[in-house]
Amino acid sequence: MLNDLAALYAGNGSLFAGSMFVIGLVIGSFLNVVIWRLPIMLDREWRLQAAEFLPQAAAVPASAVPPPAAPFNLVTPRSACPTCRAPIKAWQNIPLVSWLLLRGRCAACQTRISIRYPLVELATALMSAAVAWHFGFGAACACALGVSWTLIALTGIDIDHQLLPDGITLPLMWAGLLASVLIGPIPGSALPVSPHEALIGAAAGYLSLWLVFHAFRLITGKEGMGYGDFKLYAALGAWLGWKLLPLVILLSAAAGAALGILMIALRGRDRSLPIPFGPYLAAAGWLAMLYGNSLLDEYLRVSGLSR
Asked: Is this structure's pTM higher than 0.85?
């Protein structure tokens, strides 16, 4: 039966993309949980570790999290309204559909539900369908889906907390390195790359931003980015190889600069306020994963160079 299903998907790109759209909605719902709960889990873990070495750290006011004695992870406790704490029933938790049926409000207290939840679900579904359509059924698509979902989670967390957790960036990097060894290059696909390119890509990704970070700090006395950005760039290098890294940093820097200037012009944003760089790296990495080789080939063709 699995072989028949694989053959069906391999021979029908539209059906495969449509199926991944539906699966992407479900994955997006889970990613919402990761984006919300993982930073809280990390905060609680930090406080427990700090209390072991610095007893006075226990007196530091904690953020609005469940009591320390209550289990809190990606599964427990059951999802509930953050305002009235009413448990969310199964029919109220159908990705995208429930938000529309409830008209964006809690069924119990009528508090508005952030539109970001259905947007994350919809974005995950659309990106999953796009990846399925672009790569087709196979190992390359499976890898690209895993990278896409991980980048969405990192984007949400970085926007909320200016944090790129090691628990996500480092496994993403190691997965890229392992995929280069266990799967290797697939003709016509941007990933995985060869072990040689993955290793150089990971090292070049980390060291390049590390050098920029320290150069900026020496010149200005300020920190221009976080170490999580280095690790995310290294992870993208492990998956895409070193050749696409210049395109990734060019796209991310251009998007970040454009949005920063726009926010200053329209909202009068304080120039000293930090802007998370992770979402731009993630978006540029995802675009490079799908279209990076085509863009690079077109640039080399126009410039009269060869690859």
From this structure: yes
